[in-house]
């Protein structure tokens, strides 16, 4: 495994592991024993960067993922970087599969969240603490001030913003230096590339979630793929509909062609493409399978030249694609 630096000094594996899908949004939670073993395998493979959040869970156990990650990684705590998030909860009254988000980053709420996350993770500090979504009622400067206090107190060592825009990044960074943003990014979701200049200017890392467009770019899914209707967000994502799969045939053909030339898988090419774009960019694909864990780690060893990336970008600009899942809507509390 190769390693990269986020911000000024947070060293992480070049490919991280998004742990959400073990507990949330991809069907019923996976078997605890199997996921505990999978997380241990990840450490053995060289993964050092693990991503969770206080809201990744089920109605029965809203904090399932933090508890799982904390317990599984406890034997390796001095070897790993754990990122978690605060600042949202779900509108449980909604009948939608993908329930709307309710942001809440009041200082007292953040204070309660960090203490509870520390307990669930079984640790005395959080390595990277993200505001999960902006709160329209709490200025980001106020949030950054709380982060500054938590860093002084040793409860967190670095902080970041998720799904952030340039203005928010600049305002937050001016109060307390931001180590990383965590925004959606993939070959099908490139709208945050416009942030690259400000990230380079301020020395801020980019952690890419959904780097395989929720798994679609692994090229493992087709028109007949089925997902659990009430617990799997993919059941309502446009790229997985029969029409979406058909629209994306040219995209998948492009990725498969590049993969054949690199003796790689489509998923590896999708990850390698972003790794080769920027040295401060770290994807965090999720999985429940050991073979996919190994496959994703191998993406860091695939080299694309600057010219190859440029050609791919031009093809992505012109190729027909379906809509892609762009995130869960926020509601004002």
Kindly describe this structure.
With 333 residues, the protein is α/β, with parallel strands linked by helices. The chain has a single domain, classed as TIM Barrel (Alpha-Beta Barrel). Helices cover 36% and strands 14% of the residues. The strands form three sheets. An eight-stranded parallel beta sheet has the order 3-4-5-8-9-10-11-12. Strands 1-2 form a two-stranded antiparallel sheet. Keywords: Oxidoreductase. This is Aldo/keto reductase. It comes from Parablautia intestinalis. GO terms for molecular function: oxidoreductase activity.
Task: Give structural attributes.
333 residues, alpha/beta, TIM Barrel, 8-stranded parallel β-sheet, globular
How does the SSE layout of this entry go?
Elements: E1 3-6, E2 10-13, E3 17-18, H1 32-45, E4 49-51, H2 64-73, E5 81-86, E6 88-90, E7 101-103, H3 107-121, E8 128-131, H4 140-152, E9 159-162, H5 166-175, E10 180-184, H6 196-202, E11 205-209, H7 242-247, H8 249-262, H9 266-275, E12 281-283, H10 290-298, H11 306-318
Parallel strand pairs: 3-4, 4-5, 5-8, 8-9, 9-10, 10-11, 11-12
Antiparallel strand pairs: 1-2, 6-7
Helix pairs in contact: 1-2, 1-10, 4-5, 8-9
């Amino acid at each position: 495994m190769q390693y990269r630096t986020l911000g000024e000094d947070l060293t992480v594996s070049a490919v991280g592991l998004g742990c959400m899908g073990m507990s949330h949004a991809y069907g019923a939670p996976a078997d605890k024993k199997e996921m505990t073993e999978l997380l241990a395998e990840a450490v053995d493979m060289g993964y050092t960067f693990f991503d969770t959040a206080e809201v990744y869970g089920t109605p029965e156990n809203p904090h399932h993922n933090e508890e799982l990650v904390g317990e599984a990684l406890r034997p390796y705590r001095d070897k790993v970087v754990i990122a978690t998030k605060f600042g949202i909860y779900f509108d449980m009254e909604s009948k939608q599969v993908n329930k709307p988000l309710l942001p809440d980053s009041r200082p007292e709420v953040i204070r309660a969240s960090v203490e509870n996350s520390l307990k669930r993770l079984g640790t005395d500090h959080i390595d990277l603490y993200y505001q999960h979504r902006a709160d329209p009622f709490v200025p980001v400067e106020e949030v950054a001030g709380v982060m500054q206090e938590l860093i002084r107190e040793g409860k967190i060592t670095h902080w970041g913003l998720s799904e952030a825009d340039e203005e928010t990044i600049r305002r937050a960074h001016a109060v307390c230096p931001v180590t990383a943003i965590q925004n959606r990014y993939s070959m099908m979701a490139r709208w945050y590339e416009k942030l690259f200049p400000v990230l380079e200017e301020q020395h801020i890392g980019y952690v890419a979630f959904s780097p395989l467009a929720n798994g679609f770019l692994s090229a493992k899914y087709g028109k007949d793929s089925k997902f659990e209707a009430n617990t799997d967000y993919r059941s309502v994502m446009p790229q997985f509909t029969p029409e979406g799969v058909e629209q994306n045939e040219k995209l998948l053909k492009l990725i498969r062609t590049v993969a054949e030339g690199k003796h790689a898988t489509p998923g590896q090419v999708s990850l390698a493409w972003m790794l080769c774009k920027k040295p401060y960019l770290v994807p965090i694909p999720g999985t429940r399978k050991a073979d996919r864990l190994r496959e994703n780690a191998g993406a860091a060893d695939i080299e694309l030249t600057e010219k190859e990336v440029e050609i791919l970008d031009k093809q992505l600009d012109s190729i027909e694609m379906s809509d892609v899942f762009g995130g869960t809507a926020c509601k004002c509390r």
